[in-house]
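Hi everyone,

Forwarding the result from last night's run.
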Amino acid sequence: MTESPTMVATIPFEPVRDILRTALDQLFHIEVTGMEAIPEKGGAILVCNHTDYLDAMIQGIYCSRRIHFLGKDELFRPDDQILEMLSMAPGWSHPVFSPVRLSVEALLRLYGLFHRSQLETWGGHPIKR
């Protein structure tokens, strides 16, 4: 007898994003710049400095497009089920139905990754533009 894959309910992303954005605005002074450089549709890659544990969450919440983050598998645990419920699973976690279809879909997404792929000490590196 084979096991069926675990089904995870999907939560609409936009209402959760709006609630989290309101909470972050109340707790922190967040200034977002450079949004005009992100295309409205089509593929793109965001390369960002990683100075805080909230970086990915802030980028995902304040960006008008959904970002699919790239990184080591262990960086998404134990939050992988939460990310899946919000339809924000890492880009490589989709089942392979058609390599061609997945390649085209991957090119049309907005991907985010961090410069040096590790958390830097606060103020350790200047912001690169």
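The CA atoms of residues 68 and 91 lie 5 Å apart.

Cheers,
N.
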